[in-house]
Amino acid sequence: MWAVYSSSYLFWFIYGGEFDLPAVLSKLVGLGYEVAKTGFREGFIYVDPLPGGYAGRRVYEEGDVYLLANLQRGALGVTADKYQLAMWGVADVSRALMELSMPEPPRAEFQTSLGVTLNFCREKVKIGGVEFERSGVILTSGELQGGDGIYLSLNPMSGNRYLLFVSVGGRWSYVVEHAKRINDVVAAALARLSCGVSQQPL
């Protein structure tokens, strides 16, 4: 059995060098966002962030959506502590980009961090005459550097508490497709890793 006790979701729109962040944030004001003061200074974009270091914030009845800016990567991030809120933020930014006639970003990333409790199937391993106990796991799929790929790690915290981190990176269509079904991926991973639900070896 497993249960989630905390969650965080982050979606990055990654454009690289040419990204008009001030125009995007200005458009998001019309969608209900409070945004940081931005502009151009000596040919470079500057951001005077909101309290907390955010580039923007929208208050929904269900909670808050925050925006992050990474000027070095030419990227705008959407973060929230609930999946649905994060997806609403992604839809808001996508709408702003569409209204500005900006293309889809060449790359995107979607990251999920979950605090979970589970009975992890521990395994004894002997290496160089020393006995170790496996208490976490790392799984990868695809090309993580520059291609389309998924990284999943389960790290022990204390007792039966673990931190599950999932990162999906790659082309826009690849990341969006997997972001839409991230909860299925998480549920399947936790079921596979939890003793008593599935005893299959990894």
Can you describe what's shown?
This protein is of the alpha+beta class and 202 residues long. It is 23% helix and 46% strand. It is built from four helices and 13 strands. The chain has helices at residues 21-29, 83-99, 172-180, 182-193, and strands at residues 2-14, 34-35, 37-41, 44-48, 56-60, 63-70, 75-80, 107-118, 123-127, 130-134, 137-142, 149-158, 161-170. A nine-stranded antiparallel beta sheet has the order 2-5-6-7-1-8-13-12-11. A two-stranded antiparallel ribbon has the order 3-4. The protein has a two-stranded antiparallel ribbon with strand order 9-10. Strand 3 (37-41) and strand 4 (44-48) form a beta hairpin. Helix 1 packs across helix 2. The longest helix has 17 residues, at 83-99. It is elongated, with a radius of gyration of 20 Å. The two termini are 17 Å apart. Residues 197-202 have low confidence and may be disordered.
Topology:
Layout: E1 2-14, H1 21-29, E2 34-35, E3 37-41, E4 44-48, E5 56-60, E6 63-70, E7 75-80, H2 83-99, E8 107-118, E9 123-127, E10 130-134, E11 137-142, E12 149-158, E13 161-170, H3 172-180, H4 182-193
Antiparallel strand pairs: 1-7, 1-8, 2-5, 3-4, 5-6, 6-7, 8-13, 9-10, 11-12, 12-13
